[in-house]
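Cross-posted from the bioinformatics board.
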Amino acid sequence: MTHINIAGLEVGQVIGSKEFLLTRDSLVRYAGASGDFNPIHYRDDFAKSVGLPGVIAHGMLTMGVSVQVAVDWVGDPGKVSDYSTRFTKMVDVDAEEGAVLVVTGKIAEIDTENNEVRVDLTTMFGEVAVLGKAQVRVRL
Amino acid sequence: MVNPNVEGKQYPATEAYLVGREKIREFAHAVKSSNPLNFDVLPAQAAGYEDIIAPPTFAVVIQERSLATVLADPEADIDFSRVVHGDQRFVHVRPIVAGDELTSVLSVASVKNVANLSMITFNTEIFDAKKALVCTAISTLIVRGEE
């Protein structure tokens, strides 16, 4: 059980919103932590040689930070039973400025029988949504 | 183009991966988690877990190891330099906990060759030391064809 009372929830309700700054440092840190050492995530020359504008963030890093909005809300990362997304747009990470992601979570479905909710996440990079159908099932 | 004959192919189980506390902390830090259950043993135990638990996308570390065997398989014929990640899903029976010894079995769920692209979907089933399913990771890679 969590502190959240399912009866008090409404579809469409915003559960939280958070800004994340991804810098080149964040990408190197994620590469080490995840084991994904594709050089498109830390070398501009290599990224450009395969037709990218420059270094881009790991899709899995964007997915991993975005879900924190749902985790912060429920309080226990172990309550996330199902999490899926499509990677629709790339996040190019400027060497000096980095890239700012703004993640918002909303209640999309309430399943009182199983005491579960579905939270949909929107992850914006400037004006662009970078994840498609980012859906998190949370056990309450 | 990815060889469509690998559809349905199952790869041998990977060697056991021992989930360390510091690895979970390192990963949690990298995905900008500030949740105490990812970092501190006492609150994790108070929440009913044996040790600290991993963030919801940590299973990618195990999936990555399984994928490496497919990418190295000449039969599948996947050019990694042309791969982009299409979509990803994690279905958890329970969270991954520090101390878990995990093995994974990967199978190719589908291969679709459309125009100049291949889409290949993998299911990676992750089991604990008691052979109980912990998580299924489902991943679709898009392989761009030669220009």
